[in-house]
Amino acid sequence: MKFSVAVLPGDGIGPEVTKESVKILNKVGELYGHNFAFEYGEVGGIAIDNFGTALPSETAKIAGKADAVLFGAVGGPKWDDPSASVRPEDGILGIRRHLKLFANLRPVQVYPELIHASPIKPEILRGADFLVIRELTGGLYFGKPKKRWETAKGRQSVDTLKYSEIEIRRIVQVAFELAKGRRKFVTSVDKANVLETSRLWRQVATEVAVGYPDVGLEHMLVDTAAMQLVSNPRRFDVVVTENMFGDILTDEAAVVSGSMGMLPSASLAGVPDLNEGTRTPGLYEPIHGSAPDIAGKGLANPTASILSAALMLRYSMGLGTEAKAIEDAVSEVLRAGYRTADIASDASDYLSTVEMGTEILRKLR
Questions:
Q1: For residue range 320-344, what is the model confidence (pLDDT) as tens digits?
Q2: Residue 282 belongs to a domain
Q3: 123 Cβ partners below 8 Å, 6+ apart?
């Protein structure tokens, strides 16, 4: 089969980790008889420098016509001026809007070999395996009005937290559909004791649950969820929540896995169907940032990007067998004791970005 992939490396370590993912995808194509055609575009800070915008029209065009988008990372100190009218993050927000991506999936798995890479006690972590589903198109990040102004009493600003029933219903349906193939339990996270949007969220989630009698549902306040993530992560199966809560909780979840360098993500434009051969448009990226302090030094962990490529095969190309082959290769490399700097117990004994990618490549079957 032939697939087109838009590769948007971005800034910082983005180009380094996406390069390893492209190598892995080419190897998968070789082993399984597929052809991946890659087309590259600039996004984020580098696009601001070269085009004056974080999402050039040509990049949006490349992404729009591809079967899937492989994304690196954006941002860095160079573009951190809070008064700037254009910011690197506009690139990823713009891509999500352009492709109508509304569901962000972030699987969190504790690999036995990395259980000591986390500051959390091993007995708490052992066996943790959950999926966080974050709504991407609503909430504070997109609500209007969003502005700053000056008054006689000083500067003021406002952000608007807004959600519609349609936005809530479709993201909660994604959670229930995916829970059917897991342990059949959904935790809906909100702040219903304070926020009116959360009260609507809780009401709609309860209504959706009626259509899934075999899947359990619990409601949890976001502050409780933040505590439970690090004190009892094994209690979670599928977690679904709004945009900002999901952004914060999934970064916290990196502590469970031991490193952000191990966590992939998928952003989808529809409810995923895990049957072989089915496809859902999407964008795939590691959850870590651009890490400008280590960019170009060969220290970045490419595993999250490589696992994101596996998610791409599963959700956007219907290649579940090939996706599992990548995931199995990652597990095998970890069992063999190979580590990058972020997950190494010995600060002097670790592989470079390219070396880690090469080891995963060698384990592919």
A1: 999 999 999 999 999 999 999 999 8
A2: no
A3: none
Question: What domain count does the chain have?
Answer: 2
β-pairing, 238-241 vs 216-221, is: unpaired
The reply to whether 49 belongs to the active site is: no
* Cβ atoms 196, 225 nearer than 8 A: no
Catalytic, 141? Answer yes
Residue 15 pLDDT more than 70?
yes
Nearest by Cα to 182 from 130, 133, 217:
130
Of the residues 129, 159, 251, 328, which is catalytic? Answer: 251
81 is catalytic: no
CB 350 within 8 A of CB 320: no
Same domain, 94 and 164: no
Tell me if residue 349 is catalytic: no
SS3 state of residue 341: helix
* 315 carries an active-site annotation: no
Instruction: Answer yes or no: do 100 and 144 share one domain.
Output: no
The C-alpha atoms of residue 298 and residue 236 are separated, in whole angstroms, by 35
- 49 with 158, same domain: the answer is no
What pLDDT digit, counting tens, does each position of 271-328 carry? 877 776 677 889 999 999 999 999 999 999 999 999 999 999 999 999 999 999 999 9
In a domain, 98, yes or no: yes
Spatial CA neighbour of 29 closest among 264, 281, 322, 332: 322
Question: Active-site residue among 80, 81, 223, 273?
Answer: 223
Domain assignment of residue 296, yes or no: no
Quote the percentage of the chain above a pLDDT of 70: 98
The pair of three-digit structure tokens given for residue 287, joined into one six-digit string:
């959850």
Cα maximum dimension of the chain: 68
Residue 153 shares a structural domain with residue 216: yes
Residue with structure tokens 């059949």?
184
Give kind and range of the element (H or E) at residue 146: strand 143-151
Q: Same domain, yes or no, for 143 and 95? A: no
Determine the structural domain holding residue 136 and report its residue range: 119-257
Please check whether residues 253 and 126 belong to one and the same domain. yes
